[in-house]
Amino acid sequence: MDALDLAKLQFAVTTIYHFFFVPLTLGLSLLVAVLQTMWYRTDNPIYKQMVKFWGKLFLINFAMGVVTGIVQEFQFGMNWSEYSRFMGDIFGVPLAIEALLAFYLESTFIGVWLFGWDKLPKGIHLLSIWLVAIGSNISALWILIANSFMQQPVGYQSVIDANGVMTKVQMDNFGDVITNPNVMVQWPHVFASGITTAAFFVLGVSAWHLLRKTQQQDFFRRSANIATVYGMIGIVLVIMVGHSQAQHMVETQPMKMAAAEGLFETEDPASFSLLTVGDLDQREEVFAIRIPRLLSVLSYNKLDGEVRGINDLQAEYQQEYADRYGEDAEYRPPIAVIYWSFRAMVGAGFLMLGLAALSLFLIYRNQFTTTRRLLIVLPWAIFLPYIANSAGWIMTEMGRQPWIVFGLQRTEDAVSPNVSAEMVGLSLVIFTVLYGALMGVDAYLLVKFGRRGPVEETLDAA
Amino acid sequence: MELYDLWFVLIGVLWIGFFFLEGFDYGVGILLPFLGKGDKERRAIINTIGPVWDGNEVWMITAGGAIFAAFPHWYATLFSGFYLALVVILVSLILRGVAFEFRSKDDNPRWRSFWDWAIFGGSAIPALLWGVAFGNLVQGTPIDASMNFTGNFFDLLSPYTLICGLAGLMVFLLHGAIFLSLKTDGVIRTRAEGIAQQLVVLVIAAAAVLAAANYVYLDLFSKIGINPGLMPVASAAALLAVGYFVREKQYGWAFVLMGATILLSVATFFWFLYPNVMVSSTNDAYSLTVETARASDKTLELMTVVALVFVPIVLLYQGWTYWAFRKRITAESTLEY
C-alpha cells in the first residue's frame, strides 16, 4: 500500500473509532441533563441516583471521545497537507469556531459538573451539565458544517493561477457555508442518532438488570421507561431526517445514491434494490431482486422520477471534468462497500424502530419487565446504533470518493506529498494498537460499572 | 498593522494561554509520582487540576484550529513536517487524558500505578516536545520551494532545540510546583514548596543557558544586536522575581510572576519569529511568512470578530472555575478522579 492508501485507512480507523464515543456523548449528556433537571424540580432522590449512575458511565465514555478528537484535528495537517492548503481558507474556520464556541464550553463545564457535586449551588451545578450537553451538540454542528462543505461546496470562490489551474478555494460567503443545505439535514440526523445511541445504551443496561432481578429493580424499570420514550423519539427522527437526507443526496451526490442502491443504469421510474450482486469491475449487475418504483418514491415522494445510474454518471463526469483529469478518470466509489453499509445502516435503524416500538407497547401494557425474550435481546441491541453510526459514516465518506471535496479536489491530490508510506504506516500501527487497547479498557470499565448498578450512589446519599 | 499581523499576535496569545494553563498541569503531572506518597496523596494531587485540565487543553486545540483558519500553509507545513513528533505528542495526550478518568475506577494497585505513570509520561513528553517544536520554528527546518518540509524526525533534534525543550520542561515543572504550593495543604504542600525551592535555581540556570543558546545558534547578533530589547529582559527579570518570591515563600506572587515569565518568553519567541511563521534552513526565500501563509481577508475578518467576542467570554468562565474551586486540597478532602 502506498502513502495515500495508508492515509485513507488511517482516516477511516481514527474517525470511525472517534465516532464510537461521540454519539453516546451527544445523547447521554442531554439525557443526564434532563434527569438532573427532574431531580432539581422534584427533589426525588431516584433522579439523583440516575444522574449519578448514568453520569458515571457517561464520563467514562466522554474521556475517550475527547482524547480521540485531538487526533482528528491534527490529522488534516499531518496526512492531508495539500487538502489543508487547498481548503484551509474555508475548512479551518468552522474548526476554529468549534473550538472557541463549543470545546471550551464542554471541556470547562465537564470539570465543573464532575467536581461541583455538593460544592456548588444546585442551580449552577445543573447549569453546568446543560452547558456540557449544549457544547457537545454545538461542536457536532460545526464539525458537520465543515464536513458538509466537502459533500456540497457552497459559499466559496475558486482561485485560478496563470495556467488556468484551480489552486485553492477562498471564502466568499460565510452565511452560505453555515446554512449549507447539506448540514440542515446532516446535523439533525447526527443529533437524533446521538439520542438513539444513548437511549439504546440505557435501555440495554437496564434490561440486563431487570432480567437478572438485581437490586434496584425500580431504578432500572424507570430508567428503561425513560430510555424507551427517548429512543422512540430518537429513532423516528433519525429515520425521517435520514429520508430527507437521501432525497438531498439524489440531487447533490447522485453517484453516492446510485452506489448505495447498486443502480448501474438510469431508471425512470426507478426500482429499489433488495439484493444486488455486481460484477467484479463494478460495471454491471449480475443478479438483482428489485422492487419496482420504490426508489422513485423514496427519492421524490411520487411514483415516478428519474434516478441516474452509476454508468451514466461515470460517463457524465468523465466529460464534465475532462479538462482537469483527462477523459478516462474514475468517478465510481467502491460500490459494494457503499451498497452494504447503506443496508447495514438502514437495517439497524429499522430494527431499532421495531425494538423501541415493542418496548413502548409492552411498557404501556405493563408487561415489559416480564417479557424475558425482549430483556435478553435488548443488551445485545446496544450494538445496533454503533453499527448504524459507523456504516452511515462509511457510506458518507467513501461514497464521496474519488472526491475529498465534491467536484473540487480529489482525495489522491489531497495527501501530504512529503509524508512517506513508512511514516503513515508507523503511525497507523501505533494508533491502531493504542486504540485497540483502550477499547478493551473502556469496555471493561463500562461493563464493570454498568453491572454494579447504582449501589455505591445509594451509600453516598445515605 | 495588517489583519494577518493581528492574527499572528492572536495565535501568540492562544499559545501563551495554553502554556500558562497547561504548563502547571504538565508540572503537576510530572511531579505526581514523586510528590505523592501513597494512593490518597496521589489522588489529592490529581484533584488539584481535576476540574480544569480538560478546559486548559482546549487552548492548544484552539491554537491549532486558529493556525489552520488564519494561516492554512503554516498549519499544513507544520503538521505534515513535524509528523512523528506530533504522533508522539498525540499518544501522550491520549494516555494522559484517559488516565485522569480511568485511574481511580479500579482498586488494583498495579492499575493505579500504571495510570499514574501514564499521567507522568503523558505530561513530561509533550512538555519537552513543545519546546523542541518551537525551537525548530525559529531555528529553521528544511523546507522546499513548495512549502513542504523535506527533513525527518531526527532533523528536529539539535542542540538548540533540545535546550529549548529542556528549558520549557523546567519552567513547567516549577510552574507546577508553585501551583501545588498554592492548591494543597499539609504534607503535600510542604513537599511541593521544598521542590519549588530546589527547582527555582535550576530553572534560572536553564533560562540563562537558553538565552546564551539563542545568541549562539540563532544569529541574533546580526538580527537584533547585543541589546535584546525590553521584552526578553523583562522576561528574565520576571523569572528572577519568581526566584525571589519563592525564596520568600510568597507563592501567590511567585505564581503571578511565573505567568508573566511565560507570557513574556512566548511573546519574545513570536517576536524573534516574525514576520516568518516557519523558517526554511534550505533557502531564506522559502521561509513561510505571515503574508505567504495567510488566509484571505474575508476569512481573517470573520475570524477576528469571532475571536474578539469569544476569547473574553472563555476567559471569564474559565477564570470563574478557578474561583469556584479555589479551596486547598488534602488527602482528606472529598476526592473525585
Q: How would you characterize this protein structure?
A:
The complex is a heterodimer of chains A (462) and B (337). By secondary structure, chain A is mostly helical. Chain A has two domains: 3-253 and 333-452, no CATH class; 254-332, no CATH class. Chain A contains 16 helices and six strands. Chain A has helices at 3-42, 45-79, 81-116, 122-151, 174-178, 181-212, 217-252, 254-261, 294-300, 310-320, 322-325, 335-364, 372-381, 383-398, 421-452, 455-461, and strands spanning 156-160, 166-171, 272-278, 285-291, 403-405, 409-410. A two-stranded antiparallel ribbon of chain A has the order 1-2. A two-stranded antiparallel ribbon of chain A has the order 3-4. Chain A has a two-stranded antiparallel sheet with strand order 5-6. In chain A, helix 7 (217-252) runs antiparallel to helix 12 (335-364). The N and C termini of chain A lie far apart (60 Å). Residues 457-462 of chain A have low confidence and may be disordered. In chain B, 55% of the residues are buried. The model of chain B has no long low-confidence stretch (mean pLDDT 93). In chain B, 77% of the residues lie in helices and 1% in strands. Chain B is mainly alpha-helical and 337 residues long. Chain B has one domain (3-216, 272-324). The termini of chain B are far apart. Chain B has helices at 3-35, 39-49, 53-70, 72-81, 83-102, 109-139, 159-183, 186-218, 220-224, 230-247, 251-273, 290-293, 297-324, and strands at 276-278, 288-289. In chain B, strands 1-2 form a two-stranded antiparallel sheet. Chain B is built from 13 helices and two strands, in the order αααααααααααββαα. In chain B, helix 3 (53-70) crosses helix 4 (72-81) and helix 7 packs antiparallel against helix 8. The interface between A and B is large, with 69 and 66 residues.
